[in-house]
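[audit] Reproducing an earlier prediction to check determinism. Same input, same settings, fresh worker. If the tokens differ from the archived copy the diff job will pick it up downstream; this log only records the rerun itself.
[audit] input (425 residues):
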Amino acid sequence: MTKADFGPMPPEKAIKWFKSKGYALGFDWRDIWQEEHAVAFTVAKAASIDLLQDIRNEVEKALVSGETFESFKKNLKPKLVERGWWGRANMQDPLTGEVKEVQLGSTRRLKTIYRTNIDMAYAAGRWEEIEATRKTHPYLRYRCSMLETSRESHKSWDGIVLPVDDPWWDSHYPPCAWNCKCWVEQVLKSDVDKGLVKVSPRPKTNYVAYKNKRTGQTIAVPEGIAPGFDYNVGKARARAFTPPPLSSLPNTLQLPSQLPALPKPSKMPAKAILPAGLDDNAYIAAFLKEFGLKPGQTGFFEDKAGDRMPINEDLFLSRGKKVKAAKFGRGPYMTLLALGLKEPDEIWLQWIKNAAGVWVLKKRYFKIWEGKDGSHCLTIFDKTNDGWSGTTTFTPKEGKTQAAKDAYFNQYRAGLLLYKKNSNG
């Protein structure tokens, strides 16, 4: 049997993106809107996690094996029929309380589920590739399949070449509608520099008003983009996993009975502490610089435990979209925090209760520095799904015994030790 053609990109990143999604229950496709789809798997009117799990498992299998829609349907339909999720049925709309006759499973719906989820997974995975190679390929070309069924607006965009960071891609990065078969090609910087490829003027975007009858919200949607598709799925996924700053520092849980020996302090780099009184943008730029980035750029950083996280200036935005780079006095220590994240002495994982009383996992990046004068400095970068916090503290050079200093550092070490720096480096 011929496998589905998912394009030239290896499927690993698409699979990783899909596997990382959570679940969301919704009666109508408009209940889970735009960027929410980047972090949650949902199927309208699939009213239980068990049912969603069955559907999700088959989508994941299709991604991993590249199976055809026919195979996907053959495997999934019997499970849906067994659960009573096939054909038409009466369901109560939780928003209005009204009982409606609705379409549950059908061949047409399965085809939409199959195609949309796979297309979105590959688009998100492709964007990660685009960000990783933007230095050599800083431009994108919009491509339309130019089929009879292709939308005229999408045909008109075929061949448009714009920089990766052009805001046009925030709303026009494909897929741009249900069953949209458009894609993007990366363009070499050298081809543009040599005049082999010409950068296009940004197309004029006209907007139409669209009212989401489920939420009552009226939004402006670009012409040619289906409502709910006017966002960049790759950027949305990065933002979803970019933790905003926490407004308060979490408490440390009880220390384990035994701790490994403290790591040997690292020599503090010259000029690692920035001047006080700089504006937030200067501190943000200093942090991003340690990852080879500039404001407006996104990079994906793999920590010493093998986990990846996006690095961009959204790290310094609160949930209210306010810049908080210098909060808690951490501005001058942005370089040290970045270095402690990149090259920690240790990484700890532990459970904490957040402000809502919910248990969440916290990852702590722990680093001890030694200054030229023999003083010691500790940097801590804590990350949870709720956000992150950064702390830098100094221990007195004199007046404390070594045991007292060790006890001070040890109070920040608790939980499962995920990573420990080699004692030789």
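[audit] rerun output stored. Observation attached for the diff report: The first helix runs from residue 12 to 19.
[audit] end
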